[in-house]
Amino acid sequence: MDIWGKLVSYVAPKLDKDTLKLLRDLKNLGVKNGVLHLYAPDVVHKDWFEVNFLDEFQTLASKLAGQKIAIKILSKEQKELAKEQQKLKEELPKEKREIPLNLNPKYTFSNLIIGNCNKIAYRACVAVAENPGKIYNPIFIYGGVGLGKTHLLHATAHYLLSKNPDAKVIYTTADAFMSELISYMQKGSILEFRRKYNNLDLLLIDDVQFLVGKERTQIEFYYIFNALHLVGKQVILSSDTPPSKLNGIQERLLSRFSSGLVVEIKEPDTETKIRIINKKAKELGLQLPHDVVLFIAKTVKTNIRELEGSLTKLKAYSEIMERPITLELTREVLKDILAVKEIEDLSIEKIQREVANYFAVNINEILGNSRKKKVVEARQIAMYLSRYLTDKSLTEISKSFKKKDHTTVINAIEKVKKQMEKDRKFKLTVEFLRDKLLTG
């Protein structure tokens, strides 16, 4: 039975043609084990469906099938990565094991949000955790602060130890390595230090940029690296810059760093950030409005650590000020860390263009005085979105729409609010346009 086809046919008479087209653009991947799987062309489409239709469609699907049916919708990237992570979970042994003290128990592959920004590094680390020393050796991961390099290193160690509890693994930072070396040297035990590091299956060194200028430490690290590499033991390194830009490190060491796989972790894209925000919000017990999630994903442009920190800050302010989390509160609380350029990019002109395209009207009609129903609706929605998605004043908005004063804008905003409360089709249209603008 084509449950998805029946669902769409059932709701078709109740929906406008634009909403119906968006539903039909979702691809039916079939039902398996009581779950109807759908594929969305992008994250906005996916989130739009989940927010507006998921609960209703799950109830309808269960009635049609005569059994409980859940609906799971993935974008293309999520679909591919979900398969990989499920495979990892199935391969991991069930028994518990003691975790080394210097590994964060939360930094596992299953807790890692994967996107285009870190996919290559993730896959490389999984590969070497399954076959250490056999594929990419060393792996050199570089990228900015707070993008998840340490998480990947810890996750690789966890995965290897889960498959082989007897594996000898050391995770350390370049600073800690240097301090330990000095301590051993002061005790006259340099050979003991070397034996400790030479007898490993996996060595993970974080922040190797701190080896710059440390000649004695570099010499010792070169010795240990060669000893491990010679017998096929795995080494994974991380840095904030690629080997080619590590000025102040010996050429022979840089040559070793570049001899395996050098891979960059980039800033997460919007889709990945949305998944990070939703995961962190769940951990914090936050119920975030959809527009807030999209706004944070669009405007916090630094790194994952700051993205997570913004949610902690938002929660604290909401509780202290006893105010619900809204788009207005989010703008107010996070104004110091928002990417100003991104906010400026979401201009009134851009909103006008997006709305005009959606309604298939000329932008000059929106800016004019046409009383055609479709044009009036488009104009009012554009004014409403301009008010809530930009920092512009009512006077500035009225000028952008070529109106004499802001009374017209106020009236338009109120009409849109009231219409959204009583007309579900209209509400879906406004929310879809809002989400496209926030993620575009």
Question: Over the alpha carbons, how many angstroms does the gyration radius reach?
Answer: 27 Å
CATH class of the largest domain: Alpha Beta
Can you tell me the CATH architecture of the largest domain?
A: 3-Layer(aba) Sandwich
Number of domains: 4
**Shape descriptor:** elongated
Alpha-beta content class: alpha/beta
| Number of DSSP E strands | 8
CATH topology of the largest domain: Rossmann fold
How do the strands of the widest beta sheet line up side by side?
A: 5-6-7-4-8
Mean pLDDT across all amino acids: 84
Order of secondary-structure elements: HHEEHHEHHEHEHHEHEHEHHHHHHHHHHH
**What would you give as the CATH superfamily of the largest domain?**
P-loop containing nucleotide triphosphate hydrolases
Low-confidence stretches: 91-99
Main sheet specs: 5 strands, parallel
Strand content: 5-15%
Detailed description of the structure:
- There is one protein chain.
- This protein is an alpha/beta fold and 440 residues long.
- The protein folds into 4 domains: 76 residues, DnaA, N-terminal domain (GMP Synthetase, Chain A, domain 3, 2-Layer Sandwich), CATH 3.30.300; 173 residues, Rossmann fold, CATH 3.40.50.300; 74 residues, Helicase, Ruva Protein, domain 3, CATH 1.10.8; 94 residues, DnaA protein, C-terminal DNA-binding domain (Chromosomal Replication Initiator Protein Dnaa, Chain: A, Orthogonal Bundle).
- Helices cover 58% and strands 10% of the residues.
- The strands form 2 sheets. A 5-stranded parallel beta sheet has the order 5-6-7-4-8, with helices on both faces. A 3-stranded mixed beta sheet has the order 1-2-3.
- α12 packs across α13, α13 packs parallel to α22 and α17 packs antiparallel against α19.
- It starts with a helix and ends with a helix.
